[in-house]
Design brief:
By secondary structure, the chain is an alpha/beta fold. It has helices at residues 18-28, 40-47, 68-73, 91-111, 122-130, 150-158, 189-201, 212-221, 245-248, 251-254, 264-267, 269-287, 293-306, 314-327, 355-364, 369-397, 405-408, and strands spanning 33-38, 76-82, 116-118, 134-141, 161-165, 204-206, 227-231, 257-260, 333-335.
């Protein structure tokens, strides 16, 4: 996700008291802070020509949100590394690009073995954390990565993919996305079978990016807890990428977790509205007689100078957590920052070093140590364990799915 534009000057949030920050840091030592989504592999693909040895993240990388010194400062315990490829990549090209992204994760593990450790289970996450390493997992961001192939899904799981987001920004042939025109009204029959096969594998079903109808269909089908790897509350910010209350209220029965994200336009209604107004101004400029793309960009830059983008804040992220606690319950909240997938960040959450500040804010708001540790990692670890339990049962009950989309959704050809 790319967000650009001038940023309005915003007063810095009041510093949190030192005793709260110290208490937050102490809690981070007890449970692995597990972030649901970080796009560092895409940064290597996009900015370093896929060469992990071209940028040394053991040293400061100020252009990025993520490097090892700041990961250690932020006391990150576990990370789902996104192996994102654009939804514009389709078919075999998407499968190939996803494999290349997974290869980047493996190269990171190879280059920094004292920092990162590949983990496939909740027990492995906790073991890596106890050894002082950052447990590293893989998340596929979009069902386009499997090209409607159960075999590709299974092979990606064998390579270490712990979750798959069912869609990215556009629909896939078997599921509707939140930012596209509905075609399937949720999941098709093949899409339902994808969810069942993910359950059988022990692969988490990620419902970030999908349409509400897809959320409901997946919750109807899934026998294991689902996740939202990087989404927030739609009641607090009416962005289509966020999760409606009617879905949040289903999490207690399912057992799933929404990992609250830091994307400014998902956190701040003011930022979201500004984006809409900016788009309307761009459309107005393009409609002018004789306009060119250069003139549009010049006019848009002038508009932004007089209409600077508001800033989202750490406190607003905590507001989303508050609302989700009230709506779904404390057992259904996690963290999914989306660092290095965005160019704009909230005040107070500028990079991966800042997680303890959010923890301290939750403590300031009266969250107990037990509740904070649930949000940091215990909730998602519980989800992982339950998914492992469901997979162990299903693998005894049924064989790998041989379903084909052309049969389930289009009829035998």
């Amino acid at each position: 996700m790319i967000i650009t534009g001038s940023i309005a000057c915003a007063p810095a949030e009041e510093p949190l008291p030192d005793d709260l920050v110290e208490r937050a840091r102490a809690l981070h030592k007890l449970v692995p802070l597990t972030d649901g989504h970080n796009d560092l592999p895409w940064q290597y693909r996009n900015d370093a020509d896929r060469d992990v040895w071209a940028r040394d993240i053991s040293q400061s990388q100020p252009e990025w949100h993520t490097d090892i010194p700041r990961l250690r400062e932020g006391q990150l315990g576990a990370q789902f590394w996104s192996v994102y490829v654009p939804a514009s990549m389709q078919g075999k090209g998407a499968v190939r690009a996803t494999m290349e992204e997974i290869d980047i994760v493996y190269q990171l593990l190879q280059r920094y073995p004292d920092t990162f450790q590949l983990t496939l289970t909740a027990d492995e996450v906790e073991a890596a954390f106890k050894e002082g390493k950052i447990a590293s997992m893989i998340g596929i961001e979009g069902g386009h990565s499997i090209d409607s192939s159960m075999g590709a899904l299974r092979m990606f799981h064998k390579l270490g993919a712990g979750y798959m987001t069912l869609t990215h920004g556009t629909n896939v042939p078997w599921a509707d996305a939140s930012t596209d025109t509905a075609q399937a009204d949720g999941l098709t029959k093949f899409g339902e079978e994808v969810v069942r096969e993910m359950n059988r594998l022990g692969m988490l079903v990620d419902l970030s990016h999908v349409a509400p109808a897809t959320m409901h269909d997946a919750l109807d089908v899934s026998e294991a807890p689902i996740i939202f790897s990087h989404s927030s509350s739609r009641a607090k910010c009416d962005h289509v990428r966020n999760v409606p209350d009617e879905v949040l209220k289903r999490l207690p029965q399912n057992g799933g977790v929404i990992m609250v994200t830091f994307v400014p336009s998902f956190i701040s209604e003011e930022v979201r509205q500004h984006g809409i107004q900016r788009g309307e101004e761009a459309d107005r400029l393009r409609a002018m007689r004789g306009s060119t793309e250069e003139s549009v960009q010049t006019g848009l830059a002038a508009w932004i100078e007089t209409h600077p983008t508001p800033k989202a804040t750490l406190a607003q992220v905590a507001d989303h957590i508050d609302h989700i606690r009230q709506t779904a319950g404390i057992d259904h909240i996690g963290i999914g920052g989306d660092f290095d997938g965005i160019t704009s960040v909230p005040v107070g959450l500028e990079d991966v070093s800042t997680y303890p500040m959010l923890t301290a804010e939750l403590i300031r708001r009266g969250y107990s140590d037990e509740d904070v540790m649930k949000i940091l990692g215990n909730n998602i670890l519980r989800v992982m364990r339950k998914a492992e339990e469901v997979a162990a049962r299903l693998q005894k009950e049924r064989n790998p799915s041989s379903a084909r989309i052309e049969v389930l959704d289009k009829g035998e050809e």
